Amino acid sequence: MTRTADYTTLTTPIGPFTALADSDGAVLASGWTADAENLRTLVHPRLRPTDLRERPDLGAIGDAVTAYHRGEVTAIDDIPVAQHSGEFLLHAWTILRKIPAGDPVTYTEFAAVAGCPAATRAAANACARNAAALFVPCHRVIRIGGALGGFRWGLPAKQWLLAHEHRA
Fold first, then answer.
1. Which of 29, 89, 138, 142 is catalytic?
2. Which residues contact 74 (CB under 8 A, 6 or more apart)?
3. Could you tell me if 17 and 153 are in contact, meaning their C-beta atoms sit under 8 angstroms apart?
4. Span 36-87, pLDDT tens digits
5. Facing residues of 51 across strands?
6. In what order do the strands lie in the sheet with 27-31?
7. Mean pLDDT of the residues in the chain
8. Cα–Cα distance between 148 and 13 in angstroms, integer?
9. Cα(98)–Cα(60) distance, rounded to whole angstroms?
10. Of 154, 120, 121, nearest to 139 (Cα)?
11. Packing angle of the helix pair 120-128, 87-96 (nearest 10 deg)
């Protein structure tokens, strides 16, 4: 079955940001890259599009990305996201969307809020496997003591995002 996802790449202060969306307008994958094909490979095989179609605009998705980088850090909150995985990861990604901008949590705190306080590694794995960066704000999870931890799009991008949300 052929599944086509639309994508657009926008210019942001951190660099190019690309978002892939399904036919319902939900974000399948996103991040600070101009490589839509790389993003396509991050999508779970059950949802992965077979074809990509570049669009100059993805409507509400692009508007939210632009507004977020302009300082309206809650602009991303209501954009739908489509990800697929096991029960824990889906739950963890839902929890990530509830972490307020400007109020990062540690991996340990994230594990506890996700209902598995002893599962710090599983919480970190949820961040690492998140395909919809920004919309599922895994950048809001840091190490105990304030160290950044990891981030698929680079630690300078994570640092910029945290500082940006702190200022807003």
1. 138
2. 101
3. no
4. 999 999 999 999 999 999 999 999 999 999 999 999 999 999 999 999 999 9
5. 4
6. 27-31, 15-21, 4-12, 51-54
7. 95
8. 19
9. 20
10. 154
11. 80
- The pLDDT tens digits of the residues spanning 117-155 come to 888 898 899 999 999 999 999 999 999 998 999 999 999
- 163 residue type, one letter: A
Catalytic residue flag (residue 116):
no
Helices (H), the chain: 36-42, 60-70, 87-96, 107-113, 120-128, 155-167
How many other C-beta atoms are found inside a 10 Å radius of the C-beta of residue 63? Answer: 14
Q: Please say whether the beta carbons of 133 and 97 come within 8 A.
A: no
Closest C-alpha to 31, from 153, 120, 128 = 153
Q: To 5 degrees, how large is the angle CA 73–CA 131–CA 54?
A: 85
- Residue 85's φ and ψ, nearest 5 degrees, are -175, -160
Tokens 């951190």, located at residue: 14
- Contact 129/83 with Cβ under 8 angstroms? no
What pTM does this model have? Answer: 0.95
